[in-house]
Amino acid sequence: MNESCIMEMVKIMDKFYTRMKDLLQDDYEPFIEALSEKEVKGLYLNTNKDGYKALDHKHIKPHPLVTGGYLYDDEAYSPGKSPYFLCGLYYIQEPSAMLVANMIDIKEDDYVLDMCAAPGGKSCRIANRLGPDGLLIANDISASRAKILSENIERFGIDNTIVTNTDPLRFVGVLDGFFDKIILDAPCSGEGMLRKTEEASKTWSPDKVYECAVIQKRLIEAAYTLLKPGGQIIYSTCTYSLEENEEIVRYALDHFDFSLETLPHRDGLMPGIDMNEAIRCYPHHFAGEGQFMALLTKRGETPIKKPKVLKPKISPEALKNVQNFYKENLNIKVPKLLYENKGHVYALKRQFPDLGKIRILRNGLYLGESRKNYFIPSYSLALTLRKEDVKRCYDFPEDSNEVAAYIRGETLEAIGSKGYGVIFVDGYPLSFYKESNAVKNLFPKGLRRS
Ligand SMILES: C[S@@+](CC[C@H](N)C(=O)[O-])C[C@H]1O[C@@H](n2cnc3c(N)ncnc32)[C@H](O)[C@@H]1O
Question: Known binder of ligand: residue 116?
Answer without folding.
Answer: yes
